[in-house]
Design goal:
Length: about 260
């Protein structure tokens, strides 16, 4: 997400923080994915002052923003212990199993081709009693663009965001990955525009249109853009409970080797 919609990410993070106020959870380690300069990282540090922060930065951060973030993480390291920038590699997080007490993901899942791997990786890196808190844009986002017919674009004006899952589908993915007590909710936000240029800028920043589509629409003098953009914002959280219990599937029990102990005497 580019700077044109940084305010949106900060606003949604504030709403996520308000939901966290209702939960009793004091993590010792917290992973922010993705991380960006803004109120959410600062507020998380204030909300959980004893937590060592790790974060995966946004891919398009400027040198200045990255420098500020590294300074903030260094302060966390000095105060609380391990704090670093783990990488994403081959669809996974470069973090040890059971190394985090909380994973906080803001407006990211909808950008991924295979969003369910985030759920699986969150389960892997979270300890017993850990919390996965997230938000993402749902499938109704940008529905006005999908309804728009533009001669400058071959086919539909908009393809769905790759990871814009229905909230019930992601809730099912949480259960399948053995998360407990998933809570999902959703709200619609409506953005209104007086300028086509700003509309296209935000559509590009959200991933609703490609750069080629924006250029084609801008060149087509007959194209009539809508003046409103719908954002479907999905929120959710789930807990890691009973992580060390045996998993069951289709009436069969699967017992990990570390659960098998020799009986003496």
């Amino acid at each position: 997400m580019t700077r044109s919609l940084r305010w949106l990410k900060d606003d949604i993070a504030l709403r996520m923080m308000q939901k966290l106020e209702l939960l009793k959870h004091q993590p010792r380690s917290l992973l922010i994915i993705p991380d960006a300069p803004g109120v959410h990282a600062n507020r998380l540090a204030k909300r959980f002052p004893k937590a060592a922060l790790s974060s995966i930065p946004e891919s398009d951060l400027s040198w200045a923003d990255m420098t500020k973030m590294k300074l903030a993480r260094t302060c966390s390291f000095i105060a609380n212990g391990l704090s670093h920038f783990p990488a994403i590699r081959e669809g996974g997080l470069a973090l040890p199993d059971q190394s985090q007490d909380m994973v906080f993901s803001n407006l990211w899942i909808h950008t991924l081709d295979q969003p369910k791997w985030v759920v699986q990786e969150a389960w892997r890196v979270l300890r017993e009693g850990g919390l996965f808190s997230f938000s993402y844009l749902g499938p109704d986002t940008g529905k006005e663009l999908r309804a728009m017919q533009c001669n400058a674009i071959d086919g539909p004006a908009l393809a769905a965001l790759p990871g814009a899952l229905d909230m019930h589908d992601l809730g099912d993915a949480l259960v399948e990955s053995r998360f407990s007590d998933p809570v999902m909710d959703m709200e619609y936000l409506y953005l209104e525009y007086e300028s086509d240029a700003l509309y296209l800028q935000d559509a590009l920043a959200l991933g609703l249109l490609s750069a080629q589509q924006v250029q084609a629409i801008s060149a087509d003098k007959t194209a009539k853009l809508p003046q409103k953009m719908t954002l479907e914002v999905v929120y959710g959280h789930a807990w890691v409970v009973g992580k060390h219990l045996s998993a069951t599937k289709d009436a069969f029990a699967f017992i990990s080797p570390d659960q098998i102990k020799r009986k003496n005497g």
